[in-house]
Each structure stands twice: as C-alpha cells, then as structure tokens.
Amino acid sequence: MSGPLPELDPVIHAQARLRVVAALSTLPDGDRVAFPRLQDILVMTAGNLSVHLRKLEDAGYVNVTKTHHGRTPTTLICLSRRGRLAFDEYTAAVRALIDPTNRHDQQREEV
Amino acid sequence: MRDEFVDDLRDAPPPDPVAALRLIERQRAEAIRRFSPDPRLYHWPWGLAWLIVFGLFFLRYGPGGRTFVAMPDWLPLAVLAVAMIAVTVFTAVTSSRTYSQISGESARRGAWYGYAWFVGFAGLFATLARVTPALPPDLRTLAWSAAPVALTGVLYLAGGAVWLDRNLFVLGAWISGSNIVGVVAGPGWHSLVTALAGGGGMLVTGWLLHRAAVRATRGHEPDGVGASG
Predict the structure, then answer these.
(1) Tens digits of residue pLDDT in B12-45
(2) I need a surface site. Which of A22, A104, B18, B92 has the fewest CB within 10 A?
(3) Which residue of A19, A53, A99 to mutate against B (max B Cβ within 10 Å)?
(4) C-alpha dihedral over A19, A28, B220, B15, to 10 degrees?
C-alpha cells in the first residue's frame, strides 16, 4: 500500500445520507425530484429524510427549493455541484480502500 | 453521532468500504430503475399494435386486391382506431407516471417530445383527410398507412437525436427504410412489411433497450465485491 489512506467525507459517511446522495446522483443534471417521490424511493420516514436533507443542505451538498405547484407547496431536491463532487470523491475513496492497487482502473469506470 | 436523537442506527457509517460500495450501488440501481421509464412499456404495446393492425390490413386488403381472410370491411379500421387510442393513452399515462414529481429538463424534454407527436399527426391526418377523396381506393389505404409510418420513423429518429439514444435512432431509420420498401412494393405488401418489420422492430428495440438498461445498472456493481460477502 502506497500513500495515506483516503479520508472519508464525514457528511456522507453515514448510511442514510449516503443513500440519499447515491439516489440523487442518478438524477440527470437539471432535474429535481419532489420530496414525496424521493421519500418513496428511499423508504424513509418524512422526519428522517428532512433531518438528513438539512444536514446535507448545511454542508452545501444538496439544493432544496420550496415552490408551489398550483396551490400545493412542493419541495424540490437535487444534488449541488459540490455534492456531486463529494459523492464522486467518496466513491473513489471507498474503491481505493477496497483495492488500493487499482486506482487508475477505478477512474476509467467513472465514465 | 450522538448530536441527533434521530435514526441512530442509520446515521451510523457503513461497517466497511465493501458495505459502503454495495450500499451505493444498490441505491443507485434502485433509483435509476424508479427514475427512468421501462422501455418495454413504450415499445411493446406499439409493436404489438402494429403487428396486429397491419397484419389484419394485409389479410383483408392483400396485394392485387386479394383477400386472404374474409372479414368485414370495417374490422381492420375499427381495430386500428381502438388500438391507436388505447396505446396512446397507455403511453401518456406511463410517461406522466415516470416524470411525476420530477421537475426539470427530463420532464420538459419528455413532454415536448410527446407534443411533437400530437402536432405532427394532427397536421398529417388533416392533409390526408383532404386529399383522400381524390385518390383511387387502393392508394387510399396505402396513403393512410405509409404517411403515418413515415412520420413515426422520423419522430423516432428525432427521439434518438434528443436523447442520444442509438437504439431509438436505429429503430427510426429501420422503420423509415422498411416503409419505403413497402411503398415501392405497393398496396397490400406495404401492410405486410409494416406489420413484420415495423411492429417486429419495435418489439426488438424494446427488448434491446431493456437489456441495455439492466446492463447499465449491473455495470456499476463492482467486480469481486459480491463474492466477498
């Protein structure tokens, strides 16, 4: 093993927030998902999801927009550029921890 | 970790990197599946409808005015109308479900593409309705089949361009090409070519797109990780 082990981002190094970020990372750029739909996909309670989203928002990893769809208030969520970067770095770091010899191959897989 | 009295267990970090990676891949696969439409739901109903409707047209109005299977004149047309309406509604519902509660470019792209179909076919049918009385009977059926098939081919080509989807683009080219072959072969033959090549092409494309989607999801699963646990 050469070099120090990569540090894991403490904000997303938590199972629930990692799942939130992983799910949001599949949304194409320019898309945002409504809170209930995200909650449904993650199978989390609204309270838990809110808490985790607030932490991610505080870290600047997600953008939370409150808007109105007709008369119903809607909360729209997407990963920020910073959040996407943090997720990519976290994934790369985890891969490097699993197989430190294979870093260049991991880069290729990210495409 | 103790600063929040919420969801203590899930707030815990993954036990090890392998578990973390597996968590990421599972959640991504699930989200991709839920966020993107199942291509089979788009292509198989249309493929089946074309196979049946144009198959009926071929059997009733075969080449050289032959009738292979006796059936009432109105039957193929009635099946055409019912199938068109049913599958259109099904497609619209499928699409609005996929994009429900997602806002942004994907939803807009899907909606605008859907409008393009309606606008295109409205213009086409208005033109056909106007010129049909001047056409001999065998060319009427050909015109009402070949023009919509041509427009469908073009819209699939456009869809392939919009989503940079090679399978969709190839389907558009395939439908356009087989349509020309059918038109050259003449009334009757056109129905057979469209049923088999067009309808069959859609069924195959639905399957190819589905397989590609499944592979894309699996492709994110890291090699060797599954084996170690």
Answers:
(1) 888 888 999 999 999 998 898 888 878 899 999 9
(2) A104
(3) A19
(4) -20
